[in-house]
Design goal:
Layout (H helix, E strand, L loop, with lengths): L2 E4 L5 H12 L3 E6 L7 H14 L3 E5 L5 H14 L6 E4 L14 H11 L1 H16 L3 E6 L12 H21 L4 E8 L16 H5 L7 H14 L8 H10 L9 E4 L5 H19 L7
Parallel strand pairs: 1-2, 1-4, 2-3, 4-5, 5-6, 6-7
Helix pairs in contact: 1-9, 3-5, 4-6
Length: about 290
């Protein structure tokens, strides 16, 4: 049994992952924002299931964009979790889909604050626990959009590309300290993420695109039709992938893997990996970090 903390557990991959890992014998801290407000029902759902199935799920408040919220949870875990923490699953995220130029600087910062700086915040906060574990692990939920660029997903792609670079650097640097880092890159899934972001704030720029300003909405409608079809992928594939990584032998976990409809992302990863490893081994003479 491992003790696992999952961010963004109120819905989608996070909600399913909390249940999946707990049902497989792990102790889960399922975190989410506003557990006494908008996410109260989700909190109560998870608590009810945990009680009925006799599985270990603790619901906790966590806003990954807040230092105070993160530090409060660290203090709570120090008090309540005598066994420490083994795994951090950084799942919380939002997706801005629209005319990239028409998103304001403030909106771009908000996108990064959750998808990128939120991961840095939680990683820094919980790594002291993971370093003390005999099998510390960070699992970062990225996206195909962290390896491939999708038009009208520009701000979102940028946040996930940044996450990918941060994750790989952490993997190298934490290996000597006994902590693994692995990235999971979901393809398109009916997880609710697609509509989690706001509309573009810069209406003047938006109007300059004329009819092209409607293209992002048309793309979303196409995804909706795909999700309603018989070919729609099952979101449970992501929690299953997380569980597999968590239960893999230490040191053998992949740095990244695309799951679902991958648009050849796994092929891209396999081709880039030797180049990346050669940089570390040959150019930098740091083979011990791989």
């Amino acid at each position: 049994m491992k003790t696992v903390l999952i961010t963004g557990s109120s819905n989608g991959f996070g909600y399913l992952s909390a249940l999946t890992l707990a049902r497989n014998g792990h102790r889960v801290w399922a975190t989410m924002r506003d557990i006494n407000g908008k996410n109260r029902i989700k909190k109560e759902e998870l608590e009810k299931i945990a009680l009925e199935e006799k599985i270990s799920i603790t619901i906790a408040e966590l806003d990954v964009t807040s230092d105070k919220s993160t530090n409060d949870l660290v203090a709570r875990i120090l008090t309540e979790e005598k066994s420490g923490l083994d795994v951090l699953v950084n799942n919380a995220g939002v997706m801005y889909v629209g005319i990239t130029e028409a998103y304001s600087i403030k909106q771009a910062q908000e996108q990064f604050d959750t998808n990128f700086f939120g991961v840095i915040r939680t990683s820094k906060a919980f790594l002291p626990f993971l370093k003390k574990s005999s099998d510390g692990l960070i699992v970062n939920i990225s996206s195909l959009a962290g390896r491939l660029v999708f038009p009208y997903f520009g701000i979102y792609c940028a946040s996930k590309f940044a996450l990918e670079a941060y994750s790989q650097s952490l993997k190298y640097e934490l290996k000597p300290l006994g902590v693994d880092v692995s990235v999971i890159e979901p393809g398109p899934y009916p997880s609710g993420l697609l509509y989690s972001g706001p509309e573009e704030e810069d209406k003047t720029t938006l109007e300059s695109y004329g009819e092209m300003a409607n293209v992002p909405k048309a793309m979303l409608q196409n995804f909706d039709q795909f999700y309603k079809s018989d070919e729609s992928p099952n979101p449970q594939e992501i929690p299953n992938a997380i569980l597999k990584v968590v239960e893999m032998e230490k040191g053998n976990r992949p740095i990244r893997q695309a799951v679902g409809v991958d648009y050849n992302t796994n092929d891209l990863n396999s081709k880039v990996s030797p180049i990346q490893e050669n940089l570390i081994k040959e150019a930098l003479q740091m083979e011990h970090l791989i």
